[in-house]
Design brief:
Elements (H helix, E strand, L loop, with lengths): L5 H4 L1 H12 L2 E4 L10 H6 L8 E11 L6 E5 L6 E5 L15 E13 L1 H15 L12 E14 L3
Parallel strand pairs: 4-6
Antiparallel strand pairs: 1-6, 2-3, 2-5, 3-4, 5-6
């Protein structure tokens, strides 16, 4: 019996694994090999990570419907979410990414907004989604955290 070349022995493995990797979509820069941080850890201890490069994983829970400039990432275990914001028109996430797995990397930022800035931000977010917003629902200054995106990989849920 003839022996197959060694390269052909790997072909069945490659053909089985290929669809998994073929569905990956890279947005922005290639991700580093940094360790992932759980979203629950970021939301519980945000100050520990502010201004640091972080990598998170989860499901795309929501997407900016106007420009695709942000995604909310849901961690299944804790049900916590984190916003991953990218520069407008530099990276654009398609609405079809909703519900897909994502690995996202960027710098966690802290934003302290005055009451007026908070109202403007929430009004803008409501307008993006075509929702009603009552200015009186904001009664004080707010602080929020989000990841300023560098790169992300979106893949089909397996």
């Amino acid at each position: 019996m003839k022996k197959l070349p060694a390269m052909l022995c790997w072909l069945p493995i490659f053909l089985v694994a290929w669809p998994i990797y073929a569905s990956d979509q890279l947005y922005g820069e290639v991700l580093s090999n940094a360790q992932s941080v759980r979203i629950a850890e970021l939301t519980a201890n945000p100050e520990k990570y502010v201004d640091q490069l972080v990598k998170i994983e989860g499901l795309v829970d929501d997407i900016c419907p106007m420009k695709g400039c942000w995604v909310d990432i849901l961690e299944g275990q804790s049900r916590e979410t984190m916003r991953f914001k990218v520069q407008d028109d530099v990276i654009v996430f398609p609405v079809q990414a909703k519900g897909r797995q994502i690995i996202a990397e960027g710098v966690l930022r802290r934003y302290a907004l005055s009451k007026e800035q908070s109202v403007n931000r929430m009004r803008h977010l409501a307008e993006e989604k075509g929702e009603e917003f009552d200015d009186s629902s904001i009664t004080d200054a707010t602080v929020f955290y989000q990841i300023e995106g560098v790169g992300a990989v979106v893949r089909d849920v397996l």
